[in-house]
Amino acid sequence: MAAVGTRYSFCQASRRLRTILSTVQRLGPAALHNHCTSVTSAKIAVNGVQLHYQKTGVGNHAVLLLPGALGSSETDFGPQLKSLNKERFTIVAWDPRGYGRSIPPNRDFPPDYLERDAKDAVGLMQALNFKKFSLMGWSDGGITALIVAGKYPSLIHKLVVWGANAYVTEQDMKAFKAARDFSKWNEKTRKPMEDMYGKEYFAKTFDACIIGASQYMNNPDGNICRHLLPTIACPTLIMHGLKDAMVPSFHAEFLHKHIKDSRLYLMPEGKHNLHLRFPEEFNKLVEDFLL
């Protein structure tokens, strides 16, 4: 793999600091607050596609937020983009290729689609000049984060995953297929997806996602990334909602057992999207862990 990004030189950092201080002197303390809290939205070329991302904060600790299946920065991480500590962190939330505003291309699911997402995630942070960063991954984004941390351990400062699994079982596939009935989805979950994609693209792509996940059933023990867990070297926080209907708790326990420097936090009332249902508790736990 090529060298990752270019470390900001001392001169570059000094120029950035002088620019910020000059702005504060000219416009007052409110300027610094606005600079910290504003959320920018942009696209950047990565691995032959244009990837959309949102970025906020001015902290030295860069954190990449990785959304779930068909998820995006807009649909999946509103409370985190709004409320995570923006003075301590620089927060980047991305839309994987074929999701959110990273269309075109339309999403497809080749056998290595999660590995492709992992490569894209690293490429994005390279393009944004972050040499080392932390990961926060939910659901499929959690799997992607596990792959990144396992394949590129020298790049990752800390790792947070929730609703993630390192392998697929028949029980998992039954839960995925049951989720095809969108009438059973909570409207707060379904409507942002339909607004983002339109009903037809959403339904078609969700079906393709389930078929894509089923490909891992052909691997020994349904392996996705279980072989990479022992290579994860960074401190890891595994969070799991005990009422998660999509990913049973034995997956979180398996991650905890096989990632050597990990801790497991269980939320008794948490469901699959625990970061959206309990954002204050979630954000505090994550900030304490990352700091």
From TrEMBL:
InterPro entries: AB_hydrolase_1, AB_hydrolase_fold. SUPFAM superfamilies: alpha/beta-Hydrolases. Residues 62-177 form the AB hydrolase-1 domain. Keywords: Hydrolase. It comes from the Eukaryota. One of its GO terms (molecular function) is serine hydrolase activity. Gene3D superfamilies: alpha/beta hydrolase. Transmembrane segments: none annotated. PANTHER family: VALACYCLOVIR HYDROLASE (PTHR46331:SF2). This is Valacyclovir hydrolase. It comes from Microcaecilia unicolor.
